[in-house]
Amino acid sequence: LTEEYERRTPESRRLFEEAGAVMPGGDTREVTYFDPYPTFVEEASGCTLTTADGEELLDFLNNYTQAVLGHAPPAVVEAVTERFARGNGFAAPTREATDLAERIVERTPSVESVRFANSGTEATMNAVRAAIAHTGNDHVLKLDGAFHGTHDTVLVGVTGDGRENPGIPRNVEERVSTVPFNDADALVEAFERLGDDLACFIVDPIMGNAGVIPPRHDYLETARDLTEDADTLLVFDEVMTYRLAEGGAQERYGVTPDLTAFGKFIGGGLPCGAFGGREDVMAVFDPVRGSVTHSGTFNGNPTTMAGGLATLDALDADAIDRINDLGATARDRLDEVCADADLPVQVTGDGSFFNVHFTDEEVVDAATSTTGHESSGGPTEQFFLALRNRGVFVARRGLMNVSTPMGDAEIDALVDAFEAALSDVAPAVA
Ligand code: PMP
To answer: Which EC class, in a word (predicted)?
Structure first.
């Protein structure tokens, strides 16, 4: 498989060598790094990527769920270029940020007030900061293996890639605790132990990076009850899950958090994050009523806001239903392929995103997930390399998602490539 990959990608190899000379590791987008180098992408349109090697790949990764409308959607391109041509970035507010804030507030009943930043990382960082300021507590509870970006607090307990993180100060590690996902008893025990000291429990309602693992019945309700009883805050990281319904996973599962972090498509493909929720909590950022600092050169950038507005316009309830249905169809059909293959492999997910796990065991948390646990070259990575060689672009952790330009033909293509890739690696995984 690796030989075949290298045969297809000589220009990517050259570009990666060039990149490594001036950037450590060549690039930060490690999720699509297939040993010994990643594929460089030149451009993309709809659901097709064109690589630097001239290959055309069907994109089932969509920049880790950011490109929910596919690539270069004409309405978004038009809105962004029109806004950018009128000047961009004034160190002054513009009307577009209010418009996008209104749109998020309308769609998401738990969000009364919202602020913009530049990434999902900044969104969760500021949500946690708000929780600490509001409660006066500084202990944070999170899920074992959950990824919420790259600021210190949330990097604690990201065990997925098995690496330690010597850049996190030890005193940060001391004020973060983790619990396994979907284990209500462990959550009750953690709240008994930490309840009075907790600023918040931060949770992605579907564990995304850890393997697209949906919540068990009642798990999120239990989290809601426990946070309320302990007088602490429930923070939903909806950076990936906001695509599940107009109001995100909180609408789909009927659980109302105090604060929510947003990212990915919220800026129409330009760097963007947002965080919001209860007005009395968000007041910590109001210079008249609170004193938590949040500023940034690119916060609420008008071009980004225009991109976000055009994206939310297109991503209405009908569009969401359509991609959720396509996702359900894909999962059903991939389940059949897995069953027929008689291999220890299964598909998890909900709505328009899903993942593949090479195990027979029920996948309920980071420990039972097979995403990111194995060393390089293991069956999971081999499988996704096989899929990539067969023309479907995915991360080597396996996350896949549907974009709005897709239809039955793209699901057919995925299922065919999936079946073929499974037989490519069958001897390794059996
Ligand atoms: N939270 C979740 C659930 C994510 O999936 C990610 C990114 N994949 C982040 C936060 C961080 O977002 P960003 O990469 O924009 O900083």
So the answer is: isomerase
